[in-house]
Amino acid sequence: MNELLEIRQLNGFYKKKQVLTGIDLSIAPGEIVGLVGESGSGKSSLAKAILHAGIRTEGEIRLTGKAQMIFQDTYHSLNPAMTVGRIMEEPLLIEGRLTKEERKQRVRDMMGHVELDLTLKDRYPSELSGGQRQRVCIGTALLNDPKLLIADEPVSALDVTVQAKVLQLLDRLNAQDGITLLFISHDLRVVYELCNRILIMKDGRIIEQGSDEEVFMHPKEPYTKKLLSAIM
Amino acid sequence: MRNKKRGLQFHIAISFVAVIIALVLWGLIRTPYDPKVMDVSLKLAKSSADHLLGCDQFGRDILSRILVGIRTTLMIALGTNLIGAFIGLLVGAVTGYFGGLADEVLMRFNDAVLSFPSILLSLVIIALLGSGTYQITIAMGIVFVPSYARIIRSEFMKCRNMDYVQSVRLMGAGALRIMFIHILPNIRVTLLTSLVIGFNNAVLCEAALSFLGIGVQPPQASLGLMLSDAQAYLFARPGYALTVGFFMVFLILSFALLSDALREDAHA
Amino acid sequence: MLDVIDLNIEFHDHLIPETVVYDFDLHMDPGEIVGIVGESGSGKSMSALAVAGLLSRKDMQKRGKILYQGQDLLSCSRRELRKLQGSEIGMVFQEPMHSLNPLMRVGAQVEEALLIHTDLSKEERRKRAMDMLARVELKDTERIYRSYPHELSGGQRQRVMLASALICDPKLLIADEITTALDVTVQAAILDLLKQLHEERGISILFISHDLYVVKRICSRVLVMQKGRVVEEGRVEEVFEDPKTDYTKELLASIPKIRKLRQ
């Protein structure tokens, strides 16, 4: 199968500091890949490298199609001066192909798709709950028609009951629309629940990878075992 | 929805500003007397039923001149801040958003300009342009650019790495779109409060320049010019200077209160 | 040792007063670890702050009683309250970066409570602080003592916070989401440390968290809060094995299990 994302021998630098070392990674269309690591492991740097945002890279990154990203801090991910409807319309405005009516219709459809009540269209981000805001972020990202969605700790700031629902949404989007997902998290439990393949990062390297069952049931690296023991 | 409790200060500020607007409107519709007509018989007349605030050294009605003077002063302050804020916004947005060499060069230039006292700098520009209402508006406008640029730059620097900016960047939005459609609306509170503060500075600066005789030229009226006139008669007719001074203080106090109230309202 | 009776907390800084905690009751025996779980807006942190005597007396109205060893924290004087805070009741918060003064060396901050509550000399204070830093399992205490908060990692800062909260040997420790901002491996280490301190010193801990899993690991009894009310209370095993209310069931069901959604 043609890979959606291929990374070969990638080194990444932030200012003078090397934050990524010898990363090899390929993601096939339709996969949900979990990227696990603690703070400073380089997992967010890898995301930035894929998006060419603020990380200087050596090596090869091949991405077919567009990538979009959603973040942990839902409050700062949405422009506080715009209404939900306006925020979600933005990618369509930038693209500039659709008429005003078509744009409005696409936004309405997408709101339904990510299970947002249509009455929230005229609210500002500060008037929404964390879970609702994350849905707006996901919907906006999807309106841009990405092949790959990178989610950087998208549920870490949410309450557990809300967390579960957002995870279900991501899972459904993958199953229904075939969105490929790179899911970054420090929380192995969440990653295990959602992902088919898991990568463990430490100190800028991918130290272990495999299917979810392999990594959870038969971890090879001592660090992975330590991570697992912390949550078992 | 819970409603915020608006402070007493907010209401005071609003009513003060309303009084000022009423005075300006009064001056626009009809002044009690023609502010330029002299009457030697009324030279330095005390306040009376005919001339509520008395008359100046040429026998002109002080109330009428104040009504017109406030308008002149406010128009100059408004013009100054529009020029300053507009150019300052462009400079601040570019330097703050892009950073790098443009930022270094423009900001060092900015520092150089800021290090001159504003009156001195206005004097230099007026020396080039000549004196008069439009000239001092332009001169002061230029002098006000650096402080606006600095404030707006720091706001843009704060916003440029926000997640929401990152995500529209990923959508392929251009720099201009990000700067003026996405970031600008988010700095409106800062911009508004600095405009109000800038307004006060402009009122003071105009007063100083007109006091020095290089600002608004007679027979036009402005608060600064009137204060300059009144100073010569400080002992003969202290009421003249006090009256003009009172209006100037009132003007400045109102806008200072307003800027405080606006800031508090935004942070509450 | 701690009895909270019918605590109601009401905010008054808006036009319409808003009650954030309704009829909160809590009884803690000496040496117990009690957990309060809830999602955001459940009132768990408000209740904890009230117990620590840290809520403003001006903008909010509190009804009920908070009896600490028979003394009512809500009606006692500010002076008496200050005497209890730090010496009898210690508190640690979620954000170790914001809870430490960035301009003060760590050592001085750990000693702060001793300076306020005891007459120890400078040397004695230093010795106690070094001991305490070692007790919270910080290595290289000499260096830590002299460093500033930004020079430490998140886990180290949280240990420093614990050290400064525990230095006067409080009998009650209130821990508000103290593991939330930490990496999982560090989280586990901090929980082990708390448990150990609890066993050594018999300190009572009121442990507030949104993370049921963490609460299960450390607490013996748990209160589940929702929208300002305690909806369920009981021994940890009971609540986890056999939840009574729908809300608790939903909470438990939301914890990602080692089980797939699809399949």
Descriptive account of the structure:
By secondary structure, chain A is α/β, with parallel strands linked by helices. Chain A has helices at 43-50, 74-77, 84-95, 100-113, 130-143, 160-177, 188-194, 212-217, 222-231; strands spanning 5-14, 17-27, 32-36, 56-63, 67-70, 148-152, 180-185, 197-202, 205-211. Chain A has nine helices and nine strands. In chain A, strand 8 and strand 9 form a beta hairpin. In chain A, helix 3 (84-95) packs across helix 4, helix 3 runs parallel beside helix 5 and helix 5 runs parallel beside helix 6 (160-177). Chain A starts with a strand and ends with a helix. Chain B has a domain at 74-218. In chain B, helix 2 (62-98) runs parallel beside helix 5 (133-160). By secondary structure, chain C is α/β, with parallel strands linked by helices. Chain C has helices at 44-51, 78-84, 96-99, 106-117, 122-135, 141-146, 154-166, 184-201, 212-218, 236-241, 246-254; strands spanning 2-11, 18-28, 33-37, 60-68, 71-72, 89-92, 172-176, 204-209, 221-226, 229-235. Chain C is globular, with a radius of gyration of 19 Å. The relative contact order of chain C is 0.17. The model of chain C is unreliable at 259-263 (pLDDT under 50). Chains in contact: A-B, A-C, B-C. At the A-B interface, strand 5, helix 3 and helix 5 of A face helix 6 of B.
